[in-house]
Amino acid sequence: MDSLDDLNRRLKQFAVERDWEQFHNPKNLVMALAGETGELLEHFQWLNEAQSATLDAEKKQQVALEMADILIYLIRCAERLDIDLVDSAYRKLAINEGRYPRDRVRGDARRAEEY
Amino acid sequence: MDSLDDLNRRLKQFAVERDWEQFHNPKNLVMALAGETGELLEHFQWLNEAQSATLDAEKKQQVALEMADILIYLIRCAERLDIDLVDSAYRKLAINEGRYPRDRVRGDARRAEEY
Amino acid sequence: MDSLDDLNRRLKQFAVERDWEQFHNPKNLVMALAGETGELLEHFQWLNEAQSATLDAEKKQQVALEMADILIYLIRCAERLDIDLVDSAYRKLAINEGRYPRDRVRGDARRAEEY
Amino acid sequence: MDSLDDLNRRLKQFAVERDWEQFHNPKNLVMALAGETGELLEHFQWLNEAQSATLDAEKKQQVALEMADILIYLIRCAERLDIDLVDSAYRKLAINEGRYPRDRVRGDARRAEEY
Question: pLDDT category, B3, cuts 50, 70, 90?
């Protein structure tokens, strides 16, 4: 978990130095993550799909920092719960490969439950 | 972006093989990310803060997979927008270090705007 | 749908006068609703459960306006989809009464699926 | 708050009968509201804007019940915080009328801060 590893260490240090770990339980961190997700949504809510793919430089910069906030809280929450994010993502990818066989879902985005 | 790099490549391949990139514009991906965030919240909404830090093995497993979904959509969205997630997180961390000086915020979790 | 009826009419007029109905499709409105939900979460993320129930007057005022935003987008979205919100809430309440029999769930907040 | 008044009374009774008011503090209720918002988003994430406005009957039914869940938690949370939702919505509408003058924003959905 190389690059995320260093980031994780730095983020933990940031919290410890400010005596903020007392607030960083998973319940609170998950709420904070969802709050940042709301801010990310606000950048896209009135754009159409094509516009959402061609942000100007300033907007792209703002969006990058909102996405950073989400990654930050995701890493903090994983640290508190002792979860390996990257490993979990590979496991989820394997599950999705079983759930959505290539030939059966090609070009079709309906949710898994709807099949 | 080492470990995330390989994951990014695998996730893109997964989408391409299913002809799903047509649905994977940033607007849709941000909605999907927020949908997964909602599922993560549901695991914690009736737990108190202490309980949220001591999940049993089965619940921890489910939570890990929800967090994986969030990471997956975050990576997909960053790929579509050509954003470097880890680099953005370090930039955000530097901003936060300026915004929340250690000595002024120790033990105090009020939001930045409230100072 | 008395009081909500008048509010619905006023909100529609507000959108029409600004030529905003072109943006008010359900997909966009649901994103806007979720963005406001994120703002609401941010007010509570670092409070413990007891603090969340005893907001000071200024914070309570801010929270009331965030909740108003959610109600506003909920009403707008229901209008676009021709959904009766209050009627749907009574139907959902009836479903919940069947799903969570009083004697079986008393004092237990586990999610329905976990029974 | 007529129609919402009766709903509020019924929802409170539902919680009291199950001894669930102990879980219904604003922090938890706001999380639950956000969880339901995530479920609502999931119905729309892969639809385009036009499709989102023309749901088939079954999907519309599901969406109506998700919206009901949001209204239910909004009402519960308002009750716990002693907030009048409809009154707050009218106050927010008045604020928006000042913030977005008709002639200046016609046909333009940029966020208020961006003016």
Answer: confident
Lowest mean pLDDT among B8-17, B101-110, D94-103: B101-110
Buried b or exposed e, range C77-99, using 16+ CB within 10 angstroms = bbbbbebebbebbeebbeebeee
The per-residue pLDDT for A3 is 79
Question: How would residue C68 be classed by pLDDT, with cut points 50, 70 and 90?
Answer: very high
Instruction: Considering only the beta carbons, identify the residue of A27, A46, A109 that sits closest to D109.
Output: A46
How far does CA B101 lie from the centroid of its chain? 25
CB atoms within 10 A of CB D82: 9
Cα gap C19→C2, rounded to integer Å: 26
Taking residue B6's Cβ as centre, other Cβ atoms within 10 Å add up to 12
Distance from CA of A22 to the nearest CA of C (A): 10
pLDDT in tens, B30-47: 999 999 999 999 999 999
A39: chain C residues, CB-CB within 8 Å: 35, 38
From the candidates A25, A33, A36, A41, which should be mutated to test the interface with C, based on the most C CB atoms within 10 A?
A: A41
- SS3 (DSSP) at A55: coil
Question: ipTM of this model?
Answer: 0.95
**Contact between chains at C41 and A31 (C-beta distance less than 8 A):** yes
CA triple B21-B25-B31, angle to 5 deg = 115
- What is d(CA D71, CA D76) in angstroms, rounded to the nearest whole number? 9
B92 Cβ contact list (under 8 Å, min separation 6): A65, A68, A69, A72
* pLDDT tens digits for range C78-114: 999 999 999 999 999 999 999 999 888 988 887 666 6
**Partners of chain D (3+ Cβ pairs below 8 A):** A, B, C
Closest-CA distance, B46 to chain D, in angstroms, reads 6
